[in-house]
Structures are given as structure tokens and as C-alpha cells.
Amino acid sequence: MILREVIAHAEQRAQLSSQKHGELQYVVAASRGWSRSDLLIRLDLPADADIQVFVEHAAQQLADGYPAEYLTGYAAFCDIVVRVREGVLVPRPETESLVQMAGDFIIEQDRPRAIALDLCSGSGAVALALAARLPQVAVVGLELDPISVSCSRESALDVGLSERVRFVQGNVLAAWGLALADFSSRTDVIVSNPPYVREQRLFPAYASSPIEPVRALYGGTSGMVFYKRIIAQACDWLRPGGLLLLEIDDGLEQGILNLFERYGLQGGRWSPDLRGLPRYAEARRAE
Predict the structure, then answer these.
(1) Tens-place pLDDT, residues 132-160
(2) Looking at the whole model, is its pTM more than 0.85?
(3) Are 244 and 272 in contact (CB under 8 A)?
(4) d(C-alpha 74, C-alpha 59), whole Å
């Protein structure tokens, strides 16, 4: 059979949804090191037995809920590629705006050698993308999950940023000073995309991607557990005028603005994503 037929038959047998058809082609191409144009050329060429077995297996994994990125081992984010594997949350496109916003702030403040902290750094995508955008910025990512920390460190080596981006295993809900004491009152930007899915939304979020780790999603009954800790500690780590920048869930924005005010952060505001929903919140330490 030609490759086009192999893919079509595998999709049919696995009962892949239509939106995942493109994912299977992407996985096949990535597994062979092919570009999109390479794949298109090969679709009408005979497929050997090895690739037929691979396509069947990949189609079933996608049908079972595995993200395509788990099958390739990589996820594209901003202008870089980071490693991911089972146990690591795949970075989402909407999180790329955190990199843009943090980078714009550093540029506007004219602090080319700025220090940034990425709390709940996950795959390391935000930390690495920010450092890639701004060549003199140093970034430290704090993440509890050892698999995510391992992937982050491997990605830093892959993209040549291991000298400016460091990943530390630590718990945002515990004492940051154990891991980040050197950065007290020295940090220009704290950025975080923490677990924020509240209890009433957890099942739909899990159902949409059941293989990804629930611990990377669940933010407690109210969704506010991590925000409360991060906002309460922010002024201890930010320099005067430094920025706290968060990705948030819609419906949490007013609670987060209230926390900004309670803990002395100024200029608190939220901004929407491309769908018009509250997605980002920011505030600054007083000068």
C-alpha cells in the first residue's frame, strides 16, 4: 500500500476524530524527520512494513488521548522547540502571550540584563522562550515535578540556553527561599502559569486530554491555591517596580485583583485572550 492508504486505514480502524487526522500526519512526518513537503511527496509512495506498524500504533495512541507531542517528544512554542513526554503538560499557544508581555516589559524598562523567575515552570517553555527572545536575560524556573524539570534541562541544552536558564526542583507552595534565596528583591519579572483549573471544571479539562497530568491542572476547589501563595510572596522577590505576570482562568480575575490589592501590589489589571476571555493578570511592586 502507499502511505496515503496506510494512514487512511489506520485512522478508520482507530476511529480517529476528523481533527486528529492532521495530527497523525504530523506524528508520522516528525518521527521520520520529514518536513510537511517531504510528507506530501511520500504520500503516494509505497510504505514499508515498519512504517505501517508505526502508523497503526500512533493512530491508536492518538485515539486513546495521547497528545501528538507525546508521540514526537517535542512541542513547538514561540520560536523554540521543547522536550515533552508523558507526565509533562504540553505548553499551550495562549501561554505564548506571557513571553510577549514579559519581554515587552523588560525592553520598556531598559534592563537588558534582567532577572526573571518562572514559577510552576512545567516544560520550561516560557523560561526558555523568554531567554531566547532577550539574549542577556537570565531566567530561573521553579517546578516541583521531576520529570518536567528533567525535560526542561534537556531542552535548555538543546537550544543552547543552559548558561542563562536554570531549572530548580522546588515547591511553589512551600518556602521559595530554600531554592531561590539569591533572588530576593532582585527579580525584574515573575511570570507564572500555575495549575488553575477549579474543581467544577476539572472533569471537562481532564476529559479533553486524559493522558496529561491532572496535578498540572488542578488549582484547588476555587482554582486559587497557587495564586494566593505566589501573590502573597511576590513583593519579597520583586525589585521595586518589578512585574508579576500570571496566566489565569476566566472567572478568577476579580479574586486575583483583590489579592493584588491585599498584598500591596500596584496597577493590578487583567487582559483577555483571543476569545475575549480573561487570561492574563499583572501588577507591580511599588517603586
Answers:
(1) 999 999 999 999 999 999 999 999 999 99
(2) yes
(3) no
(4) 18
Burial 37-60 (b: 16+ CB within 10 A, else e): eebeebbeeebeeebbebbbebbe
Amino acid letter at 66? Y
Closest alpha carbon to 193 in 170, 159, 211, 219: 219
pLDDT tens-digit readout, 231-248: 999 999 999 999 999 999
